[in-house]
Design brief:
Shape of chain A: flat
Number of helices of chain B: 10
Strand content of chain A: under 5%
Order of helices and strands of chain B: HHHHHHHHHH
Largest interface: A-B, 51 and 44 residues
CATH class of the largest domain in chain A: Mainly Alpha
Number of strands of chain B: 0
Helix content of chain A: over 70%
Largest sheet of chain A: none
Strand content of chain B: under 5%
Number of strands of chain A: 0
Number of domains of chain B: 1
Radius of gyration of chain B: 22 Å
Distance between the termini of chain A: 9 Å
Oligomer: heterodimer
Chain lengths: 307, 296
């Protein structure tokens, strides 16, 4: 059964990957203008454009072009950046560690604060933690990230002069972007943790375990937390996937040299080869993480195993 | 018979009254209704009247702090911030509303068709949805604007399309559960057409889920639209869309933070109000649907 599930999800993902590659292939061809010129960049000479057109086979029928593009992507060739003349994959590999570091830090901080807060809020709704959870829960997902980022820069870089306002290099550079992202993530995380715990606390098996005389902390660890974990793990997975590509705005405000900022940069300088490549890598990560979340879900909750 | 009709009508009225009482009891949601009404009014008035011309440059009044003449101060070109906020309300809120309407309409229609008819059509729509869901929402919106270019309609399209796959999934799953309900089967047995059953029997039964999801999505879309504006991928300058205002003013955070502060307060208040309103509507209409809805 588990194997069948794996095979089904794997097949689904393979189809999706082909679809994603197709969409990115069409992206450059939908844009007004000559795709060879778009990919070669505005400063390329006419000979360079013609050279690229032959290389990419842009004079051939569309389906043959797609086959060629698809095969080159599979072999790890994402094209060449016109700005640097470097392979796109090299640029992405240089950016990826920054995005990864920021994502891990922000997600860890968010979990460390939001999950305990959500648990306490569910157990003691009228405590300070309960009210804090309500406020964080709704504020985290209502404040625009670019605004909280600027506010923190104002408070900690301009007024207090404690932390750098942008760039990368030292651990201090990571503090503000991590805080901004974590605050944003905490909103949904606190809410889901509290809601999921409240639901399990009211379930029959918990009432039974409690009334048969099982000590309360055992009920909590063995029956409540485990069952409440499924929605939390799912959300963390989605959030982490989003962070790997969706930290676009935070990375831009803080000048953090990650892959999200690469997307924005390449839009502004019309480096479509880089844009295509970066979005493809982000989507691949996003899909892989969703796949991984499904696996973890299956381990925690056997009911999700049927196809 | 007429007695039965009367009793059904009375029961419906009673249920509506009960929902309204539940909603009223949620003070945050009820207050949000007023906040949103005030914002809508502001957007409406802003279309006809602003204290100053929101585009008029007056360098002698540049970067003024809050004062009686300029309640929200002036920006680096001396433009009145209150006037710009009032002018921009129409863009930020209007674009978000149009985008959610577009996403909900297209996504719900595709979800209904996909869930009700099944088969090859369903398979095709679902694989296409998988592809769209393979991109984080904000990234999808950014990628779409890079294809479409800057412009009001293009922001509506980009933010709208970015939400389509979420509606497709939600509505399809609900349609699947309703498809085999007795009243739907009865409709089929009576020979009613597919579209008639879809729009008269299935859609009304899931419309409230779409309404609540759309309320949350208004909050999210306001953030997406203003983020596009912030990045310079939204509406063209010098239109004072709220996110664009912050993007243009960002360097003043080091010297005159109020230029950045003010538009952010309005974006946050609008997004917050929609989030709280969504909670209130959810609890009033059907608390059980909480697990279905997406809030990211």
């Amino acid at each position: 059964m588990v194997l069948r599930f794996l095979a089904w999800r794997g097949l689904q993902m393979a189809i999706t990957i082909i679809g994603v590659i197709l969409v990115l292939f069409l992206l450059v061809r939908i844009l007004p203008g000559d795709p060879a010129r778009l990919l070669a960049g505005p400063e390329a000479s006419q000979e360079d454009v013609e050279e690229l057109r032959r290389l990419l086979g842009l004079d051939r029928p569309l389906h043959e072009q797609f086959a060629a593009y698809f095969l080159s992507v599979l072999s790890g060739d994402l094209g060449t950046s016109y700005r640097t003349g470097e392979p796109v994959i090299d640029e992405i590999m240089r950016r990826l560690p920054y995005t990864l570091a920021l994502a891990v830090a922000a997600q860890t901080l968010a979990i460390a604060v939001a999950v305990p807060l959500g648990i306490v809020a569910a157990l003691r709704p009228r405590s300070i933690a309960g009210y804090a959870a309500s406020i964080f829960g709704v504020l985290g997902s209502s404040l625009p990230v670019f605004w909280t980022a600027l506010l923190l820069i104002w408070a900690f870089s301009v007024e207090l002069k404690l932390l750098p306002s942008g760039g990368a290099g030292t651990p201090a550079h990571m503090v503000l972007p991590t805080a901004v992202l974590a605050l944003f993530l905490m909103g949904n995380l606190v809410r889901i943790t509290r809601a999921s715990l409240l639901e399990v606390l009211g379930a029959n098996h918990v009432v039974t375990a409690h009334s048969k005389g099982l000590p309360w902390n055992k009920v909590l660890t063995r029956h409540v937390i485990r069952n409440a974990l499924v929605p939390i793990v799912t959300l963390v997975g989605v959030q982490f996937g989003t962070l790997l590509g969706g930290a676009v705005i935070t990375e831009t405000v803080f000048g953090w040299p990650g892959i999200g900022r690469l997307v924005v940069e390449s839009i502004f300088v019309r480096d479509y080869a880089v844009l295509q490549g970066a979005i493809l890598i982000i989507a691949l990560f996003f899909m892989l993480i969703n796949f991984f979340v499904d696996m973890v879900q299956m381990l925690i909750d056997p009911r999700t195993r049927h196809v | 018979m007429s007695d039965l009709v009367r009793r059904v009508k009375a029961a419906k009225r009673e249920r509506t009254a009960q929902m309204w009482r539940t909603f009223r009891a949620n003070r945050a949601a009820y207050a949000s209704l007023y906040v949103l009404a005030a914002m809508a009014l502001m957007a409406l008035i802003g279309a006809f009247y602003t204290p100053y011309d929101p585009y008029r440059i007056d360098l002698s009044a540049a970067l003024g702090f809050f004062s009686p003449a300029h309640p929200l101060g002036t920006d680096w070109l001396g433009r009145d911030m209150l006037s710009r906020i009032m002018e921009g309300a129409r863009y930020t809120l209007g674009i978000s509303f149009a985008a959610v309407l577009l996403g909900a309409a297209v996504g719900s229609a595709l979800g209904l068709i996909s869930g009700y008819y099944g088969g090859l059509l369903d398979a095709i729509i679902q694989r296409a949805t998988d592809v769209l869901l393979a991109f984080p929402t904000i990234l999808l919106a950014i990628a779409l604007t890079s294809v479409l270019g800057v412009g009001i309609l293009n922001v509506v399209l980009a933010a709208g399309i970015a939400t389509v796959p979420i509606y497709i999934r939600l509505v399809r799953n609900l349609t699947l559960t309703l498809r085999n309900e007795p009243y739907v089967e009865a409709g089929r047995a009576m020979g009613l057409s597919g579209p008639y059953i879809l729009f008269r029997h299935i859609l009304p039964n899931l419309s409230y889920v779409i309404v609540v999801q759309s309320t949350y999505y208004m909050g999210i879309t306001i953030l997406i639209v203003s983020a596009l504006g912030f990045l310079g991928l939204g509406v063209p300058k010098p239109i004072p869309e709220w996110g664009t205002m912050i993007g243009d003013a960002r360097d003043y955070i080091f010297t005159y933070p109020h230029v950045v502060l003010v538009p952010g307060v309005f974006i946050s208040a609008a997004a917050l109000a929609f989030n709280l309103l969504g909670d209130g509507l959810r609890d009033a209409l059907d608390p059980r649907m909480a697990t279905l809805l997406r809030r990211t």
